[in-house]
Write a structure and sequence with these properties.
By secondary structure, the chain is mostly helical. The chain has 11 helices and no strands. The model has no long low-confidence stretch (mean pLDDT 92).
Length: 210
């Protein structure tokens, strides 16, 4: 995995590990969810968390560092939960289906992401569209790693040169469903998601079975 991989940096990034830093990041998330990033200030976070600005700057010397730590924490939370969901599934079919269902549901319901897409797209939309190369590359690496683990375990057969292309197709599918919420695809109900899986995703895995 490349050293500049965004998701890997999120997993390996460290924030000061104590109660105050957790409270600060929690308050920063709530502040950004309620008011966006355009009006985001350290003063508002300090009032919300009940700490002084000096204390917050002791942990995060600049506002940009606080926002970066917040983004890394949210990415880490997403990846940790996604990995747990996927690892708990007994078959490659279930891993694909439940993994996709989790990713789409988590991201479509993420308050901060939806807030930014709706009211302040200039902060995030370029990084998910015309400048989405690094993000897609990171997602592709993550999914390809999961696929290679299944291949190594003898659960899938797929030529190595096709793994990253398949991984990118899955990443682009999720990204499209997040960026364009309006769809005839029944992705917002458990029954609809299962029907999609039965019709389109499970058959794909069956063709890759040894």
């Amino acid at each position: 995995m490349r050293k500049d991989d965004l998701l890997q940096r999120a997993l390996s990034s460290a924030t000061p590990g104590d109660e105050n830093s957790d409270r600060i990041l929690g308050a920063a998330l709530a502040q950004a969810e309620d008011f966006g990033l355009r009006r985001f200030t350290v003063d508002d976070v300090a009032r919300r968390v009940g700490l002084s600005r000096v204390t917050i700057y002791r942990y995060f010397p600049k506002k940009d560092q606080l926002l970066n730590a917040l983004i890394m924490r949210e990415l880490r939370r997403f990846l940790t939960k996604a990995d747990a969901v996927i690892a708990a599934q007994p078959t490659p079919e279930a891993k694909l289906v439940e993994g996709l269902k989790f990713c789409v549901t988590f991201l479509r319901n993420h308050r901060l992401l939806n807030r930014l897409l709706r009211t302040e797209p200039e902060f995030i939309l370029p990084h998910l569209t015309v400048k989405a190369g690094p993000f897609l590359g990171a997602a592709r690496n993550w999914i390809a790693g999961l696929m290679r683990a299944e291949i190594a375990a003898g659960q899938l057969t797929l030529p190595d040169e096709d793994i990253e292309a398949a991984a990118e197709l899955l990443a682009r599918t999720v990204l499209s469903l997040v960026l364009t919420p309006d769809t005839v695809l029944p992705v917002d109900s458990a029954e609809g998601q299962q029907r999609l899986a039965d019709l389109y995703f499970t058959p794909i895995v069956h063709t890759l079975r040894p």
